[in-house]
Amino acid sequence: MRMMNEGAEVQVCAIYLPNSEHSEDDLRDGISVAAPGPIGEMMRDTSVATFTF
Predict the structure, then answer these.
(1) Element (H, E) at 3
(2) Domain assignments of the chain as residue spans, ordered by start
(3) For residues 11 and 31, is the Cβ–Cβ distance under 8 A?
């Protein structure tokens, strides 16, 4: 939440939700589902800090 409060965009893996008991409605406000294409582009951009865990 602190990272989001400081402007970070938080997304869950697009594969996670369909393979879990959770749905998009279970995500906290401000957290979205990542789309593979745009995330791939972002991860290749050296000016963008990407954190995964």
Answers:
(1) helix 2-5
(2) 2-44
(3) yes
Which residues are CB-neighbours of 32 under 8 A, at least 6 positions away? 9, 10, 11, 12
Q: In the chain, pLDDT over 90 holds for what percent of residues?
A: 53
pLDDT at 22: 94
Q: How far is CA 13 from CA 29, 33, 52, in A?
A: 16, 6, 10
Cα atoms in the 13 Å half-sphere on the side-chain side of 10? 13
Q: How far is 41 from 39, CA to CA, in rounded Å? A: 5
Question: What values do phi and psi take at 47, rounded to 5?
Answer: -90, -5
